[in-house]
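Predict the holo structure. Ligand: protoporphyrin IX containing FE.
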Amino acid sequence: MTPESHSLTDMDLTAADAPVPPPGCPAHGLGPGGVRRLYGPEAEDLGALYEELRAEHGAVAPVLIHDDVPMWVVLGHSENLHMVRSPSQFTRDSRTWTPLNSGRIKPDHPLTPHFAWQPICSYAEGDEHLRLRGAVTGAMSTIDYRGLRRYINRTTQALVNRFCEEGRADLVGRFADHLPMAVMCEVLGMADEYNDRIVHAARDMLKGTETAIASNQYIVDALTRLTARRRTQPEDDFTTHLVNHPARLTDDEIREHLRLVLIAAYEATANLIANVLRVILTDPRFRAQLNGGQMTVPEAVEQSLWDEPPFSSILGYFAKQDTELGGQRIRKGDGLLFGIAPGNVDPRVRPDLSAGMQGNRSHLAFGGGPHECPGQDIGRAIADTGIDALLTRLPDIQLDCAEDELRWTASIASRHLVELPVRFEPRPPQDVRQRPALRPLPAQRPGWLITTTGRQSTEPVDDRPFTPDTVAAWSVAPEGAARTLPVPPAAAPQRRPGLWRRVLRWWRGD
Ligand code: HEM
């Protein structure tokens, strides 16, 4: 394809220069130069907008982000991969971005948190990237995945214990938002910092509310204390290995990388868990495949990573030289949005979006190239193990509102399900330290019946103190309460392959 004749520089008009279309005019959503805006009311359905852009421009399209700052959005699967895998042509170092250097972007630009350069591996390149990322991956390589899965399983049981007697719960606020934070606090070596407050602080920070700065500070303070503690009291945890890594990170670098790991892991994995659970509860075909054994939970997670990646785009990559991508002429200093969600639905790789991907892992959800997510195995372990354990424990779980009542908060970078109300038969808490009995067997999952009762969610906020030293300490069933696995509900017996494997995995704590 011949590169399109215009470049981002040609359309760099200020918003004031642009004629304002009358209300109702189809030109709404278009900015200076007739370029589409990726923000505002016309960009509410970003998926549909990306498809219009693909039809108009092909694999790489010119767009305007907030304040009508011009960028390219990369829509093609192979073009996205080419960009992230070509560090000689594209960098994540935003200090090279022309609109930033020319003063076109004001310091209070609403997307500043997404692109502001920081001395962390996400924005570094070359030797500096190797040094910082090497320390992170070196510390990650010490993680014992068997122990991690056991911890995820026990944490899931503990979280379910908090609401299982109520028969109702919001699975976002009481499960998906908690599990990754509890697990990451344990991985980093600060299990005692895990409580409702840190979960709310992380969510508040990501929402960018007026208290976001204080919430960020709360998390930074916890990580500063942890760094200082591990300098003097080493343990066998991620932070100690980061501190002792031969790359000799400074205290500031350690704290910033702990923050990166904690927040990247929390936000992405919470979204992933919520997305998978929502599809299970609302898509009978998906549910039937899981129940019938044609799909495993890890395959369901992988499918979700294709259909609804936790980060829908990354802002951004920046051209280091004049080049060409997807038929567009890219100038040195141009910014490009790494289009994860549109790349995952590129018709050239997925001509039929309803066809299952059957565990195929070539989606863009974890990025690619030198910055490819180093925590993907941890994210997958939390989602796979947590969802499996939740569904085993609450096999009769059903959506407790109409599907169209579900709400999301969305930004250019991600979509977060606000609530996922469910109901189920109330059950007693379970002792999470207990080894499972082989009899009675864990409940077979019945077909999760989808009922959309239209109930407005009235989920109370659970503000009971949640300050365990270890998961085991908070989850002992009360005296006399059931100390076996939940008794199967009186459902028609169903044969499902893999039961013994599941019991064995439970037994081993995998
Ligand atoms: C489902 C869960 C997750 C998803 C979808 C995800 C996705 C991503 C993506 C898209 C990137 C950016 C790639 C790029 O810049 O091209 C990234 C980077 C990163 N992620 Fe994840 N992530 C997940 C979980 C985690 C976890 C659990 C950790 C840590 C334990 C983690 C740590 C990081 C770090 C440190 C980077 C920066 C790497 C670098 O720039 O070299 N992520 N992740």
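The chain has one domain: 133-508. Residues 84, 92, 121-122, 133, 136, 260-261, 264-265, 268-269, 272, 310-311, 314, 338, 365-367, 371-376, 378-379 surround protoporphyrin IX containing FE (CB under 6 Å).
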